[in-house]
Amino acid sequence: MRVLGRLSRVTRIVERELKSLFSEFGLERGEFDVLATLRRGGASDGMTAGMLARSSMVTSGAVTNRLDRLVAKGYITREIDPANRRAVIVALTPAGRDLIDRAVAAHLDNERRILAALDQDRQDDLAAALRALLLSLGDEATDPRPLGDP
């Protein structure tokens, strides 16, 4: 009970901290995830909506809603793929790239602040223990590439 209770409390606190940070940029967490995924992808020509759905592990309907909001805000474009007219290519606009670069820098600072009580060895141990727990519960998702990595 100690472990699960603490995990639950940590989750609530971290979610609150992330929501607060993302709102400073006018984003919801799912919108941040889409922009960060596009930025991590590094390709200036974008990604398909299906690729975004697979990387975020949410339904295509959820991705569509996120994309609609981000298009309305001017942070992404959606274009029919000329090579495959059934696919839609999603790409960052210059405003979206600028926003996500600023938001990621602030997010990384926020993560460092949240984890400041743990030195690197303790963070590594905690990450390994949580990964083992996730795998034992059937979660086979791969960890995303860190936002600061090219």
Automatic annotation (TrEMBL):
Keywords: DNA-binding, Transcription, Transcription regulation
Annotated HTH marR-type domain residues: 1-135
Molecular function via GO: DNA binding; DNA-binding transcription factor activity
InterPro entries given in the database record: HTH_MarR-typ (IPR000835), Tscrpt_reg_MarR-type_CS (IPR023187), WH-like_DNA-bd_sf (IPR036388), WH_DNA-bd_sf (IPR036390)
Keyword Transcription regulation annotated: yes
SMART domains per UniProt: HTH_MARR
Residues of the signal peptide: none
Record's protein name: MarR family transcriptional regulator
